[in-house]
Design a protein that fits this description.
Number of domains: 2
Distance between the termini: 41 Å
Strand content: under 5%
Helix content: 40-55%
Largest sheet: none
Order of helices and strands: HHHHHHHH
Radius of gyration: 20 Å
Number of helices: 8
Length: 186
């Protein structure tokens, strides 16, 4: 149903499939309830030889050096709290984001979650099956490039632009973004 829709239409039962972040899994399961079965699958590959690898992204933690030692120590304590086993177990169960702390996988709470809702394990399994080659592109204009790519893929899938024109438009807009970045950051 396009980038602006998807999850609401899926949750209401008017769409058979949606692509969504793992962060929306808990909400999807909650909203759907027992009206129908929600299955999850690996992100699809381009062709039969694609190994279906994924790269991670979103909900990242960053600490900036403000020059204030006390603030940096507090920031570090907060980050350690956020990534500890208990916090990551809670985060995973209540959102769908996969845990960044491997210790979560050994907890009884996680094992119970997977037994009750095996959908939570799909993204973790796909990440474990991925290789460093699946990390994705490194680009100074990554977010902008991603939005451009999503826009033209959607346009192509909706029949508004040919695959060839979508590719040309993506390349032009991404090149323009890189050129602009490079001018500002000489």
């Amino acid at each position: 149903v396009g980038k602006q829709g998807g999850v609401p239409e899926f949750n209401s039962g008017t769409s058979a499939m949606t692509f969504a972040s793992t962060a929306s899994l808990a909400q999807i399961l909650s909203e759907v309830g027992d009206r129908f079965e929600v299955g999850t699958a690996y992100f699809p590959g381009v062709d039969a030889s694609d190994n279906h690898g994924v790269s991670i992204g979103g909900a990242s933690l960053y600490a900036l050096d403000s020059g204030d030692k006390e603030k940096m120590e507090g920031t570090w304590d907060f980050i350690k709290f956020l990534v500890n086993v208990d916090s990551q177990t809670y985060w995973n169960a209540n959102t769908g984001y996969f845990p960044v702390n491997k210790g979560v996988l050994d907890t009884d709470k996680f094992k119970e979650l997977i037994k009750e809702s095996p959908q939570f394990e799909t993204a973790i399994d796909q990440l474990h099956d991925s290789t460093p080659d699946d990390q994705g592109a490194l680009s100074t204009v990554f977010q902008e490039s991603r939005q451009v790519m999503e826009k033209y893929i959607e346009e192509m899938l909706n029949g508004n632009v040919s695959p060839e024109d979508a590719s040309k438009n993506m390349a032009k807009e991404m090149d323009d973004a890189l050129e602009s970045y490079n001018k500002v950051n000489k």
